[in-house]
Amino acid sequence: MARNMQPIAKRCKALNLSPAVMGYANKNTKRNPKGQMRRKQSEYALQLTEKQKVKFVYGVMEKQFLGYYEKAARMSGKTGDNLLTLLERRLDNVVFRLGFAKTRPEARQLTTHGHFLVNGQRVDIPSYLVKPGDVIEVREKSRSSVKFSGLLGEDAPVVTLPKWMTRENNALKGTVIAMPTREDVDFPVEEHLIVELYSK
To answer: How do residues 105-114 score in pLDDT, each as one tens digit?
Structure first.
């Protein structure tokens, strides 16, 4: 499986993203301190940057991203909004948003290793698209591990859930209660630029 191996902090700086969006609270880079002093970007450069930003945040490569765009274009409504909601519905993103992983890359790895059940069935495909009513939980065999046992109890990290999901108190179980909307995307993005790029 192809992966983006670029340094997180450096890539976030290039895309004008906060590392916190990726789940990295203390990441920063001192490379190229004058990196923001660039000449005005062309229209194409702006469009390309927005596409790269979304691909980077969700950990999607070009071929798969194009597939999401084509599916979004076939759906009713705004293509840009559809694209972002499709990406939000990815199982690895849902695992991250539920607080079962610190970062999206970690969520993707844990999903690939088969630590999660969807409606009682083991799913190890990070790109699996959840839907309202789906119940996502950590497998019984995985709950005793240090990774997941630390997510329960008084010392458990506080998680801010998007309004389209719920999580049971003191349990490694969450439910998708609605479809995500454009407002649920937790980082700045101008999706219309992506649509313009692919529409050329």
So the answer is: 999 999 999 9
